[in-house]
Write a structure and sequence with these properties.
alpha+beta; globular; 7 helices; 141 residues; 4-stranded antiparallel beta sheet; binds adenosine-3',5'-cyclic-monophosphate; single chain
Length: 141
Amino acid sequence: MAIEQTLSIIKPDGVKKNVIGPIITKFEENGLSVVAAKMQKLSRHQAEGFYAVHKERPFFGELVDFMTSGPVLLMVLEGENAIAKNRELMGATNPAEAAEGTIRKMYAASIGENTVHGSDAPETAAFETSWFFKGGDIVSH
Ligand code: CMP
């Protein structure tokens, strides 16, 4: 398996619930390391560009409103098979469908307020990581 990097976001609901610690612990206990991190309140421009792939969806406005409603923790995670591993740990997009023990099952309230984001493929991981971090911001262990 390859060592990969993926973008992780702890969304405004996760920050508000004060569960940054347990979420990062879950990543670390499962072989993922934080190699870049910053807390930020996203601008509409940042959120709209990040989620541009969803701009025709009916929920796009709601998604941007939510993602700009409070601070988020942006992180790059690194590890073996990091993209799929992160998605497995997050659980299904809709917390009602998320498996027991996953982050969304434990903390998410709804499909919109679903606590975490993770890149879904190598191409999106590259785009999403570069949307928020410059190469020099990422420090592999
Ligand atoms: P995320 O993994 O960040 O990627 C896109 C986001 O759009 C997704 O998580 C959800 O939070 C959000 N989303 C997807 N479907 C819906 C929906 N039907 N209603 C509201 N938000 C949605």
